Automatic annotation (TrEMBL):
<keyword id="KW-1133">Transmembrane helix</keyword>
<keyword id="KW-0812">Transmembrane</keyword>
<feature type="transmembrane region" description="Helical">
    <location>
        <begin position="355"/>
        <end position="377"/>
    </location>
</feature>
<feature type="transmembrane region" description="Helical">
    <location>
        <begin position="155"/>
        <end position="170"/>
    </location>
</feature>
<feature type="transmembrane region" description="Helical">
    <location>
        <begin position="316"/>
        <end position="335"/>
    </location>
</feature>
<feature type="transmembrane region" description="Helical">
    <location>
        <begin position="100"/>
        <end position="119"/>
    </location>
</feature>
<feature type="transmembrane region" description="Helical">
    <location>
        <begin position="294"/>
        <end position="310"/>
    </location>
</feature>
<feature type="transmembrane region" description="Helical">
    <location>
        <begin position="177"/>
        <end position="202"/>
    </location>
</feature>
<keyword id="KW-0472">Membrane</keyword>
<feature type="transmembrane region" description="Helical">
    <location>
        <begin position="262"/>
        <end position="282"/>
    </location>
</feature>
<protein>
    <submittedName>
        <fullName>EpsG family protein</fullName>
    </submittedName>
</protein>
<feature type="transmembrane region" description="Helical">
    <location>
        <begin position="131"/>
        <end position="149"/>
    </location>
</feature>
Length: 386
């Protein structure tokens, strides 16, 4: 925990002393430093010595067995049999003699990609330095580092999915390749199937159907598990069998102990995102709103999906990490460049509107503080040992 805290403080120091034009160097250094921290985490010591089990312990067992038994072992493993992308990722990772390369590479992918998007979008929108520091801090603190380096597949899917959405909706490039990417993600982790379902719904989304779609998505969890289990019962395809098992895991038993703190911080992030979207829709000019209409609409769908996933405990507490990535876009759009606002000088003079913007920014800082306290002063980062 102390190692991670020192690393983050050093990254913040670099952001403060470097010019905005050199933030690409800072982001590269940051990604490498965090990967080094991930590389040195010892899940075996955490479990054997301290009794703190993480999924990375299981990944290390799979890596050791794959080195010994080869491709045939990983191909027949129940967790990877129907997921050929995940199978290839773990198999290639097994060529490294040290298991720590798996979380290190995963960390480099996740933080590297998101920092890249922050930098590119900041350049695209001519974002000021203070806002870039704010979004970088928001990302560093509110993303669960432990989850990134121990869950492996789920964080990669969230990260790459957001990257593809950014390319398709913000850069408006390579649409076909993005769709191929969406499909391939389904073979990294089954959660991608839910995300591609949301993307498909966007094909039907307009100002008339949007409200209906959002309501249906909020209610989705009451139907999804039943539907998937029926499909899995009617087919012998391993992928759908695995999907049903994952859905059951995400839902959890009704008597399962649910950690209230995790639910509460997830709710805090959902509320913040709703406020950001409301303020974006209220403060930004029509040109900006039209330009980023698709990413705005998908963000609404994603929020509804997260709210609707409440009965699915594990999904509900994991989705806010994906929300964070989309929030970065809107924080930059709202606060990064005054030209994005409606008649900025006149707008700022209106006390009510100005105070609302101040309230939203205060909520961002409040969220950062709450997540910092929870992650660094609870078992979340307390399990990290080296």
């Amino acid at each position: 925990m102390i190692v991670l805290l020192i690393t983050i403080l050093f990254i913040i120091f670099l952001l403060l002393i470097f010019k905005k034009s050199r933030f690409n160097i800072v982001y590269l250094i940051s990604s490498i430093l965090l990967s080094v921290v991930a590389f040195n985490f010892d899940p075996i010591k955490a479990y054997i010595s301290n009794g703190n089990y993480t999924d990375l312990y299981r990944f290390y067992e799979v890596l050791d067995s794959t080195r010994l038994l080869g491709w045939e072992y990983i191909s027949n493993h129940p967790d990877y049999k129907s997921l050929f992308i995940a199978r290839i990722y773990v198999y290639l990772s097994s060529f490294f003699r040290i298991n720590g390369f798996l979380p290190a590479i995963t960390c480099l992918i996740v933080y590297g990609v998101i920092f890249y998007i922050i930098y590119k979008f900041g350049q695209k929108t001519k974002c000021n330095k203070s806002t870039l520091i704010l979004v970088s801090l928001f990302f560093l603190i509110t993303i669960n580092f432990r989850s990134v380096i121990t869950n492996i597949r789920n964080p990669i899917v969230f990260c790459i999915f957001f990257f593809l959405m950014y390319i398709e909706f913000v850069e408006q490039k390579y649409k076909l390749l993005c769709w191929i990417g969406y499909i391939l993600l389904c073979f990294m982790h089954q959660v991608a199937l839910f995300l591609i379902g949301l993307r498909l719904l966007m094909l039907l989304y307009n100002k008339y159907s949007g409200k209906i779609i959002n309501i249906v998505i909020i209610l989705w969890s009451f139907l999804s598990q039943y539907a998937i289990q029926k499909v899995s019962a009617l087919t012998s395809i391993p992928y759908f069998k695995a999907l049903a098992m994952k859905t059951q895991f995400y839902s959890g038993d009704v008597n399962e102990l649910r950690e209230t703190n995790l639910i509460m911080i997830a709710v805090i992030k959902i509320i913040l995102f709703i406020c950001l979207l409301l303020y974006f829709n209220y403060s930004c000019n029509e040109e900006i709103k039209n330009k980023y209409k698709k990413i705005y609409e998908f963000s609404l769908v994603l929020i509804c999906f997260n709210i609707g996933s409440y009965p699915n405990y594990h999904l509900f507490i994991r989705l806010p990490d994906l929300l964070t990535y989309f929030m970065l876009i809107f924080i930059i759009l709202i606060f990064g460049n005054k030209q994005n606002n409606i008649n900025y000088n006149e707008f700022k003079l209106k006390k009510k509107n100005f105070l609302y913007g101040l309230l939203v920014k205060s909520e961002i800082y409040f969220t950062i503080i709450i997540y910092f306290i929870y992650y660094f002063f609870s078992y979340q980062y307390g399990v990290l040992c080296y």
